[in-house]
Design brief:
Nucleotidyltransferase, domain 5, alpha+beta, about 30% strand, nine-stranded mixed beta sheet
């Protein structure tokens, strides 16, 4: 059996799936689901509450793997709930580094590597010493170190690391730029390294808590975290680059749409929408496949090197606080708690939907919602409204609560529709990538709205009408994101580095480090083939779909002579699903 748990801003959702072999491969069936309130100050409590429900349903059946998707990294970054991070930059000539400065303390060092990987100028150790002393005085314990062209020669970054160890500086979390990605782009590497360091401490505590909780439940099973690209990384390896999980939550929504809808069969272009309590996550499918960002997603508005599924999170959800500011209705981005109908302190769009009767047919809401509380919370705003703009809500001295609720929902819908249209306009006439291929000159004209999430049943038909799309509610809409996490394929990665000048071969993740044999010759194509072969070997799957995610080749030059080449290739199992659940397709 497999368990998937998605930790959202409002709810933590869980699913238990059982696999059964068939002629077409393993097919999974949803056995049980769970949904609990997310405790923002104690995510582990929410995870365990959802997990324990599923473990009871599983009985004594063995749990083969657990996959978690979480907003932990994104929340820490957006809310800036991390300890100060120092940044050491070695930009070299030709680039004004001022626009790269970020964080509490920035140290710009002289010395640089050129584009061929040659060290042109060494470090000024006195300059480094003074900068590190200043960071120690400010009690900065987290550090990112990034040198331009460090992927072609990490020498300066490694020299700084060694200097820090020699002098005993008390840094607790350090990221060095060359370890994040083999691709070039100094600005993307700077921001990625900074944010990777920022979330390290929080993520380490999270990993430790997960392991402890599983041990207490006598669960000896593989645990994975969903990454931005829709693949998974094992809990034991996530600390190598925790920033890869920053968009884990939106990725779960997109993978859930892949798993539960039939968009892969219809090959349609569609908008994927996950309407939650705190945010609305928007994704895009073209010809049945999700759009992908191979160059890197944005993190807090800044470019990164983290490959990921294309998504945009709108700070607007069913539990967004409705207020009146200067006489006008404002929805979100704050969330005070659940809807007033469920004991929350403020009116929300969920309250408006209940007043309009859009959610009443849902037994869970019908049984527990306090409709009078919803009506009362909305009515309290009447006196704050600008009588000029909202005068039509009063008829014969009576406040038209239904009209007011409809206006709230219209505002929310208009905001979501406007964002979708902005996304489409931004991508118009630009090459786009899906998880399989580059599409150039394709017309992006969605026809379908694939919706999931708590309020989706009430909102998605209204949204589809405004957009002119056909609306389809994804099966198991309230927990489909957890299904997407559960069934995401592990994206095992292999790095192969060949240095013909030093006559050395490294297959990093496989632990292979050896001298080249006499007569052993490599070109870039040979290194790529080696990376693909070893990736399949390590995955124990000779038929696995493998992609080259990074490739780099440059000459090693001393004086006026070319001594050889350094070639580095990273191969990865392609993101995708291990199966689709029985009954998942929309009929």
């Amino acid at each position: 059996m497999i368990i998937g748990i998605d930790v959202g801003g409002t709810h933590t959702d869980g699913v238990l799936l059982a696999g059964e072999k068939s002629p077409a491969g393993v097919r999974h069936e949803i056995i049980a689901t769970s949904k609990v309130r997310t405790k923002k100050d104690n995510l582990m409590s929410s995870i365990l509450e959802a997990l324990d429900v599923l473990l009871i349903a599983a009985g004594k059946t063995e749990i083969r793997r657990i996959v978690l998707s979480t907003t932990l990294a994104a929340n820490v970054i957006v809310e800036e709930k991390y300890d100060p991070v120092g940044l050491i930059l070695i930009p070299g000539p030709g680039l004004n580094p001022e626009h790269l400065l970020i964080g509490e303390e920035n140290l710009l060092l002289s010395g640089y590597i050129n584009h061929r990987g040659k060290e042109v100028k060494g470090l000024d150790r006195e300059e480094l010493l003074q900068g590190l002393d200043k960071m120690r005085e400010r009690d900065i314990r987290n550090l990112a170190i990034v040198s331009k062209f460090s992927t072609r020669n990490p020498g300066l970054e490694e020299e700084i690391l060694e200097f820090i160890r020699e002098k005993g500086y008390p840094f607790e979390n350090i990221t060095v730029g060359h370890q994040l990605s083999g691709r070039l782009s100094f600005p993307r590497r700077v921001f990625t390294a900074y944010f990777n360091t920022a979330i390290m401490a929080v993520y380490r505590d999270f990993v430790s808590a997960v392991k402890k909780a599983l041990a207490e439940r006598n669960l000896d099973t593989e645990v994975y975290i969903l990454k931005c690209d829709g693949g998974t990384v094992s809990l034991d390896r996530v600390m190598m680059a925790p920033i890869e999980t920053v968009n884990s939550g939106p990725a779960a929504s997109i993978m859930g749409t892949m798993a539960m809808s039939r968009v892969h069969l219809t090959k349609e272009t569609a908008i994927a929408l996950d309407i939650g309590g705190t945010t609305t996550d928007i994704g895009l499918f073209i010809n049945g496949e999700p759009v992908f960002m191979p160059e890197g997603i944005e993190i807090n508005g800044l470019p990164s090197l983290i490959r990921g599924l294309y998504s945009l999170s709108l700070p607007l959800g069913g539990d967004s606080r409705i207020s009146v500011v200067e006489g006008r209705i404002k929805i979100g981005p704050e969330r005070d708690g659940p809807a007033a109908a469920f004991g929350g302190p403020s009116p929300t769009p969920t309250d408006a939907l209940l007043v309009l009767g859009y959610l009443q047919e849902d037994p869970a809401y019908e049984a527990s919602a306090d409709l009078q509380a919803a009506r009362g919370a909305l009515a309290q705003l009447a006196g704050e409204l600008d009588p000029v703009g909202y005068g039509s809500f009063w008829q014969d001295g009576e406040f038209n609560l239904t009209g007011f609720a409809r206006n709230i929902i219209d505002l929310m819908l208009d905001s979501i529709v406007g964002t979708i249209r902005e996304i489409l306009a931004r991508l118009e006439n630009k090459p786009v990538y899906t998880i399989s291929e580059l599409l150039a000159g394709i017309e992006i004209n969605p026809k379908v709205l694939l919706a999931m999430g708590g309020p989706a049943k009430g909102l998605s038909p209204l949204l589809a009408e405004k957009l002119g799309y056909r609306e389809e509610l994804v099966p198991y809409a309230k927990v489909a994101n957890a299904v997407g996490a559960a069934l995401a394929r592990p994206t095992l990665q292999t790095t192969v580095r060949v240095d013909t000048a030093a006559s050395y071969l490294n297959i990093v993740e496989a632990g292979v480090h050896r001298k080249l044999k006499p007569g052993e010759r490599y070109e870039l194509e040979d290194v790529e083939e080696l990376a693909i072969t070893w990736t399949r070997k390590r995955a124990e799957d000779e038929a696995a779909a493998v992609e080259i995610t990074e490739r780099e080749s440059f000459n090693v030059i001393r004086g006026f002579s070319t001594l050889g080449k350094i070639m580095e290739v990273k191969a990865q199992i392609k993101p995708g699903l291990i199966s689709r659940p029985e009954g998942s397709e929309i009929g």
